[in-house]
Every structure is written in C-alpha cells, then in structure tokens.
Amino acid sequence: MNRRAGRAGSASRQRPATMRRISRMHGAARGYTGYWWEDPARLVLMFILPLYGLLSLGLLGGQKSIARIYFDGFHAFAGALFLLVVMAAAWLATTEVQTRRGPPAPPVDVPRRVLDVLFTLALFGNLVMMSGIIAHPALLLAFLHGQATAYDMLEQIGRVTGLSSFTQATAPFVALYFYVFRTSAKGLNRYKVYMAVLAVLTLLRSFLFAERLALIEMAMPLALMVVRFRLRGRYARLLVLGPYAAIPLLFGLFIANEYNRSWEAYYVNVYDNIFDFALERLGLYYSTSLNNGAGLLAVLGWGQGHPMFTFDWLMRFPVIGATFQPWFDSSDSFNLFLNSYADPEFNNPSGIFVHFYEWGWFGLLDAAVLGWLLGRSYAGWRSGNGFWCCAHAVLYVSLMEIMRTPNLFSGRNFLPIVLPIIVFRWFATWPAGNAPTAEPAASGGLTAD
C-alpha cells in the first residue's frame, strides 16, 4: 500500500513537469508567443485606448494649459472608433496568417556586410545633419554652458533632401543586428561598436535638435529585439507590465532632454519644481496633439485637406517627390491653422484625426491599412520571419506614437521599411539543405511566415 502511494505521489509530481514539456512543445510549434504588448491588437486594447480615454477626459474637463479646446465628445468618439478599427484589423490580419500557415520556414541567413553598409548610411546621414554643429563647435560649447538656446541649435541642422534622410537607416540597422546575431556574439566586435556610435549620435540629435522621435525610433526597436532574441523569458514579471513599466523611463528621459533646452532657460521661473514641469509638459505633448487634430476638423473641415499626411513618404521621395507636392501638399493651410488657432510650439496633429481631415469618414480605411500592416508584421514576428521581424520593430513605433504624430505614412518610415525589403529580397540566403523547393526560395525571406 505504501509502495502504491509512493508511485502515485511520484506520478503526481511528474505530471506537472510532463505538462510543462508538452506546453513548451506546442508553443514551439506555434512559434514565439511573447508578451501581450507585442501584439498590436492587445496593445491598443490594454494600453493605447485606456491612455486615450484618460487624455480625452482631461480635454473634455477643460484642460487649463490649452488656450482653445476644440476636442469634444464627438471627436472623442471618432478617435476611439479609429483606434478600434486599427485593433480589429490587426487581430484579423494576425489570425488570418496564423490560420493558413504551415510549418514555419527556416530562418534565412543575412551576410554581416549588410550591417556595414547600413551603418555607413546612418553615419553619413548623421554627419550631414550635424554638419552645422561640426562647423561651429563653439556654438555647442555655448549651448552646454547655457549661453545659446535650442533655437540657435535648430538653425544649424543640415537638411539635404535625399542625404540627411539616411539617418533613418539607424532603426533597420538595430533590427537587423539582432536578426543577424540571433545568438549573442561573445566579446567586442565592430558591429557592437557601430551600435554604440549610432546610440551616441542619436542621443546627440535628440539633445541638440529636440528630435525625441529619433531616440524613440532607435530605443523601441532595440527593446523589442532584445526581448525577442536575447532575454528568453528572463525578467518576465517586469516585462509583463510592458509599456506601463516604461512610463518612469520616459519621464526621466524627458527631464534629461528638457533640462538644458527649456527648464533652465525659462520654465524654472514658472513651475515649483522640475517634476511638476515634466509631468505637465509630457502630458501636454499628447493632449495638444489630440486637440490640434480636433481643431483641424473643427476649423478646416472633414475631408477638406489634400492627402499630405497619407502621402508624405511620396512627397519626400528623392528626385520625383517635388512633382507630387502641388497635388498633395496642404501645409499652408495647416500652418495657418497653427499660427491662428493653435500653438506653433505644439505642432503635432496626432496620427488619428489627420486621416479624417484628408478623407472624411473614409479615413477609417487608413486605420484598416495600419491595422493590417501591424497584424501582418506581428504574425511574421511570432514565426521568426526575418523581414517581418524588422518591419514589426519599425511599425511598432508608429502605433505607440499614434496619438501624437502621424508617423506610419511619413517619410521617416520609408527607408526603415525599404532597406529590409532590399536586404531580404536580394541578399538573404537559405541555409544549406533548408532551401524550399517552391517559390518562397526566390523571396529572400519575404514569405507568408
């Protein structure tokens, strides 16, 4: 009887371990699962919509720091509907791919020299943009000592169409680095040095030119790729909080970024302490963006604008972009609105209401396109497809910043998407013995998985 009890106890102890092994096997068959916030549909539902609701309540309650409030209950409904369409389209796209997907294709190999090329492009773009500072180092010292303002630094930005845009090669470099080195490389190599150099240059751009988005565009893909390819389940209790855990980091980064730029120069005499300043100003960046977007609709009208934000990438296309500007550009109307009805300092129109301004209710089609792209990229992210892993890391930024800026169709996303397409279409190779015999072999990694 004791032996039977012992065997029963042993079996009960082994059963959970067996179930865990079976669960891991099923998880491997389905692909990488990850955390809820990596899924765009759940990110919208559990983070972006609640944050949108809080900001909407603040605006509807009368935001005292904003002179003119355009945002009302109707705008709150329209914005929420836009986000719900994004969420639904993302969920449908992910589900559709996973339903028809067969066994995941083996990961393709990307030559390391691709990273050398991407680093060269990104470095060149940064040097072009910082050429004014490099030519006037005394101005940098004056800025660090509080003797020059942020506006003095902004005048030194070197923007050369088609050249300074190569700064956007930073994000695909980050994503491709982790794909090329899916297993961490031991010791120091030149690619880690490249990463450090680009991080320093991006921090400088963020600090000197107030390009906070540049820092976000590097930091978010970096964080996503580290979680996807390095942590392997470590720090799960912290990571399950996702973007909520990152809010204190964003708060600290904002303080560091604004200390020299605006706190010491002006706001030290307005606010009691820097923490109150940072909390209110950070919230204002998102509140004023939503209010500006609502103001566009209230002042300029629904469906009255040229599709400047939808086709921003085309207008900024080298050589041919200028041809399309007369058809698509409505920046004169937008700038007139900012100068006459809003605040030119807070000039973001959100990534939601601009689509209603351009297309009316048909702007929900833009929401569906955004959701489909995000859902499709997430399906590829889970299966380990090289191109979609890189694309997801880039598109994720557009979703996280959707309440503040219309980033998805902007020229900033053009190179970060096109460069991985080029890499995986023409430079990726299948590992020996793993090349599919059908059409996917010619796709260079751009497969359905």
In short:
By secondary structure, the protein is an all-alpha fold. The chain has helices at 2-30, 40-60, 73-100, 113-129, 131-135, 137-144, 150-154, 170-180, 190-209, 212-231, 236-239, 243-263, 274-300, 312-315, 321-328, 331-341, 353-359, 363-383, 386-400, 414-426.
Low-confidence stretches: 1-29, 437-444
What string gives the helices and strands in order? HHHHHHHHHHHHHHHHHHHH
Q: What is the count of helical runs?
A: 20
Distance between the termini: 54 Å
Average pLDDT rating: 83
Structurally, the number of domains stands at 1
Structural class: mainly alpha
Describe what you observe in this structure.
The protein has 20 helices and no strands. The chain is mainly α and 449 residues long. The protein has one domain. Helix 2 crosses helix 13 (274-300) and helix 17 crosses helix 18. The longest helix is centred in the first third of the chain and has 29 residues, at 2-30.
Helices and strands in order, then pairings?
Layout: H1 2-30, H2 40-60, H3 73-100, H4 113-129, H5 131-135, H6 137-144, H7 150-154, H8 170-180, H9 190-209, H10 212-231, H11 236-239, H12 243-263, H13 274-300, H14 312-315, H15 321-328, H16 331-341, H17 353-359, H18 363-383, H19 386-400, H20 414-426
Helix pairs in contact: 2-3, 2-13, 3-18, 4-8, 4-9, 8-10, 8-19, 8-20, 9-10, 10-19, 12-13, 13-16, 13-17, 17-18, 18-19, 19-20
